[in-house]
């Protein structure tokens, strides 16, 4: 691939912005390995995405000029940092966090008026994601509003690809987090016993983690949490409103929620894509791909690939969970998945428990979110 390659598609066109899922379905069928200046070489098929995930030596994650722990790292460095991160999402930590998570969900659901139209994003999903994130990490409540603004600005800067704006947004986040770390260091033994303090005590080899490593870890958790959890809650609530039979089933059999949540989010992706770069020449679908080629894995398409899932929109609870790429696969598979699954189960349990029914609003369709966001930009729903 070189500068003269003609673009196969425009990821920022109005057609794609209007309905990302439909547009990616179309690409997967028409041009499953597609070049564009903006997203480089995009892979739309499950098989091609799996090939990349299973071969981190050929497909490196070192795609960004920013330090990105552990997302932008390759082994052996990646392995070391993963071993620091994974224990924060252990079953024990999840058990301790569950009641905190439930309390937040209950208080937000109780704040929704009954027998009325609500804007689920603004009145529930975003607040749920932000409050949960701050509670999990031990961050103060006055960070809720700046965090919400930050994630919006981060999406805008990513969409335009404006390097100066991206630098500014990264710096803004760093400033907040460095403030929290400085506060904890000054407090010494009186520092709150939370995850942020614990990261400040974590060691890599024989040294403490540097501040820029901690900031990067927390930035990636924040993007994972705020960017996707709010989108997931919107997608799930909208799906059950649009599919009364699924809503009825989940109201009657709450134990089906975990599998149903993963399946709904397979059908309607909360995270569109992630990136890689080749470390040697390869071939995809007859296309010769040179070393140094940037690649975009389109989760939102691979997880709807009919060669693996049959009808992409078919809601089925008996699928092989290993084929669902919601949380990725291989060495970079989402370490936050246990937390995400816990939060989404509780959000849905409480939404269903404190309402009699969730329905679409007849004359007010939701507005789809635009890449790199997924889910809905606005989501009016009727709550009884
Ligand atoms: C429903 C919500 C979430 C979804 C759909 C999701 C999805 C994913 C996916 C697909 C990957 C693989 C990326 C790749 O291969 O390049 C990933 C990685 C990652 N996720 Fe999540 N995630 C979610 C929530 C979270 C949460 C709550 C956290 C942390 C609090 C988190 C932290 C991370 C990190 C740090 C990585 C990078 C792992 C690595 O490079 O080794 N994610 N996530």
UniProtKB/TrEMBL annotation:
It comes from Caballeronia choica. This is Cytochrome P450. One of its GO terms (molecular function) is iron ion binding. Belongs to the cytochrome P450 family. It comes from the Bacteria. PANTHER family: P450, PUTATIVE (EUROFUNG)-RELATED (PTHR46696:SF6). Pfam families: p450.
């Amino acid at each position: 691939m070189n500068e003269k390659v003609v673009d196969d598609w425009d990821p920022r066109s109005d057609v794609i912005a209007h309905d990302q899922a439909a547009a990616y379905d179309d690409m997967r069928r028409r041009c499953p390995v597609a070049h564009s200046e903006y997203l480089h070489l995009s892979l739309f098929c499950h098989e091609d995405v799996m090939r990349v995930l299973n071969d981190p030596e050929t497909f490196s994650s070192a795609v960004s000029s920013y330090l990105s722990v552990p997302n932008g790292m390759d082994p052996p460095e990646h392995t070391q940092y993963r071993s620091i991160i994974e224990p924060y999402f252990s079953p024990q930590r999840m058990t301790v966090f569950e009641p905190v998570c439930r309390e937040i969900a209950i208080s937000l659901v109780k704040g929704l008026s009954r027998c009325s139209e609500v804007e689920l994003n603004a009145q529930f999903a975003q607040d749920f994601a932000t409050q949960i994130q701050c509670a999990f990490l031990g961050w103060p409540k006055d960070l809720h509003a700046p965090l919400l603004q930050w994630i919006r600005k981060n999406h805008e800067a990513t969409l335009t690809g404006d390097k100066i704006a991206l630098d500014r947004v990264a710096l803004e986040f760093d400033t907040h987090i460095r403030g929290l770390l400085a506060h904890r260091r000054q407090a010494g033994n009186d520092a709150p016993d939370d995850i942020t303090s614990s990261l400040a005590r974590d060691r890599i080899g024989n040294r403490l983690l540097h501040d820029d490593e901690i900031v990067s870890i927390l930035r990636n958790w924040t993007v994972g949490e705020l960017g996707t959890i709010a989108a997931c809650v919107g997608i799930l609530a909208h799906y059950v409103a649009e599919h009364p039979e699924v809503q009825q089933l989940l109201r009657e059999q709450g134990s089906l929620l975990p599998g149903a949540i993963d399946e709904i989010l397979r059908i309607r992706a909360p995270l569109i894509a992630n990136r890689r770069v080749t470390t040697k020449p390869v071939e995809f679908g007859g296309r010769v791909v040179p070393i140094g080629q940037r690649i975009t894995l389109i989760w939102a398409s691979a997880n709807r690939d009919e060669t693996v899932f049959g009808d992409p929109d078919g809601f089925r609870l008996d699928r092989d969970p290993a084929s669902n790429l919601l949380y990725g696969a291989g060495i970079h598979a989402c370490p936050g998945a246990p937390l995400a699954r816990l939060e989404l189960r509780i959000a849905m349990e409480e939404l269903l428990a404190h309402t009699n029914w969730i329905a679409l609003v007849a004359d007010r369709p939701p507005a789809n979110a635009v890449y790199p966001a997924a889910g809905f930009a606005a989501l009016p729903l009727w709550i009884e």
